[in-house]
Amino acid sequence: MSEIVAQDLVRSFAIRERSGGIGGAIADLFRPARGEKRALDGVSFRIGAGETVALIGPNGAGKSTTVKLLTGILTPTSGSVRVGGLDPWADRTTHVRRIGAVFGQRTQLWWDLSVGEAYELLAKMYHVSNVDYRRRLQNFDEVLGVGPLLRTPVRQLSLGERMRCELAAALLHAPPLLLLDEPTVGLDVAVKLRLRAFLTALRDEGNTTVLLTTHDLGEVRALCPRVLLLAGGRLLHDGPLDSLISELGGRRSVRVFLRDPVTDRQLAKVPGAGRIGPTELLVVVDGTVSVAEQVRALVNELDVVDLRIEEPAIDTLVAQFYETPR
Amino acid sequence: MELVALLGQRLRTRLAYRGDVVAGLLSGVLLAVVGPVFITTVFQHVSSLGRWTAPEVLFVWGFADTVSGCFYVVFQGLYVLNRRYILAGELDRLLVRPVDPYAQLLLDNLAVEELPSVFLGLVVIAIALAWGLPEPEPWRWLLLPVWIAGGLATLGGVVTAIASLGFHLHHRGTAVGLVMQLTSFSRYPLDLFGSPLRWLLTAVLPFGFAGFYGACLFLPRPELQAYAWATPAVGALALVGGYAAWRVGLRRYTSVGG
């Protein structure tokens, strides 16, 4: 059963150029918008109930636009989106009862209220029973540590405290779908790990579908078996992170430490090897020569002290991939 | 249910800023007093304005002030819709909650500090009666709340439509304040003004029904009763139209980057 079905989603925005000065402002009133920018350009995907999926891509790839279409904040220019069988925009009030949303950049809570007051208000808005409310709050206190913050006004929370509170707020009504738009942006490692642990537990329970956008590939590797890569408004990859890496031409390499400095003649005999320092080599495993041949050459020619296998730097690969036009 | 919870929250947070509320109440009282003082001063020098007597003018003023007072309490959100909600993207927050976003906009910005203006409007109505306004038939008084609501709906609907232009224009300014200036005219008998203005306030932006025409139901003016009776219908129509314009605009909402 698919929780999310997106079909040929297109969303374009009018581009307006502003002219300076008062005269320009008046002229702008009568000037139509100049062209349009396609934030999403024909994107289709399905996400099954209970899946945890990462949506990654560079800035301006269309990640936030996708999340806003799924929450019902925006309407698609063409194509269709269904969440739990509902049209997010047309069936808004029913739809939003089924989702929880966290936007890392802005708060969903009320600045003027304390965290506890905000939760109570949300519980009323979402018809959460007293029993459920207390049980969930206790759970959030245990795993997110929101208990001590309940009396603090939202405006006084630090970013880390606020994001913990936001996540709890989004889950107070136990929605079957959780949408997270850059939930960990700007957070320190300790808070990131805490949120990650919480989301891991949520994933393993399997009752909540989670879609999160992020720039943190460590987070993707830890949390999401499936990755959607967006760039320039198009879906470029849909599958596990590892298949994305090999698709991007990611190569593993072996860092080799030697007892004695390596000579050019020795180096030439090891396929794929490059010198990094006098006693340090990098051997790239790229499939053009067999690994066996590379290893044999290494052992025969050189006095190896230590070996280290290195994973590709995904961040760099993805960045390179974005910049390659296709 | 949700609306009651939101209302309670709004009242609590407003009252938390006691200074704001007190200052707002005081300035509200001052502003509301200026009008009636001006009218009574004028009528110390002249016996009538056109064919209108002092109590009649005062009654029209009181009715219009009650209506616009209610408007400032209920529809304050329209003043900040463009800048805060559309351009700065605050609307996102309202759109992901299970309560109608329009209702949330109004409730989030409910202005209790404008209440004195409502109260003073009613006092001015009482003064007009004490000053010798011919008493309308008693059953007409029963209709007063309905006619105030009709006027309120007229103002609210029209201004909602104007504010919703922000969804299409993407300009920093909003015409809401400017348009509301026109209600200064509908606080007086409209036949005091030239016909273009009268036409504007009757057929284009029907603010006349939020003041003068609405008040006529309670004045001994048979020739204006047709307009007076139209007030609730005009209100309902304006509100439906305004909400439709809001929905059309909301569909065009583009949020902000990110």
Which features would summarize this protein structure in a list?
A: 326 residues, alpha/beta, Rossmann fold, Alpha-Beta Plaits, 2 domains, four-stranded antiparallel β-sheet, 13 strands, B: 258 residues, two-stranded antiparallel ribbon, 2% strand, globular
Descriptive notes:
The complex is a heterodimer of chains A (326) and B (258). Chain A is 37% helix and 27% strand. Chain A has 326 residues and is α/β, with parallel strands linked by helices. Chain A folds into two domains: 2-247, P-loop containing nucleotide triphosphate hydrolases (Rossmann fold); 252-323, Alpha-Beta Plaits, CATH 3.30.70. In chain A, the strands form three sheets. In chain A, strands 5-6-7-3-8-9 form a six-stranded mixed β-sheet, with helices on both faces. The longest helix of chain A has 17 residues, at 189-205. Chain B is an all-alpha fold and 258 residues long. Chain B has helices spanning 2-16, 18-43, 54-74, 77-87, 91-95, 101-108, 115-130, 138-164, 166-169, 176-181, 195-204, 212-216, 225-252; strands at 48-49, 52-53. In chain B, strands 1-2 form a two-stranded antiparallel ribbon. In chain B, helix 1 runs parallel beside helix 6. The two termini of chain B are 34 Å apart. The A-B interface holds A 13-14, 16, 25, 28-29, 64, 68, 71-75, 89, 92-93, 96-97, 99, 101, 103, 105-108, 110, 112-113, 117, 121, 124-127, 181 and B 1-2, 5-6, 9, 13, 16, 89, 91-93, 95-101, 169-171, 251, 253-255, 257-258.
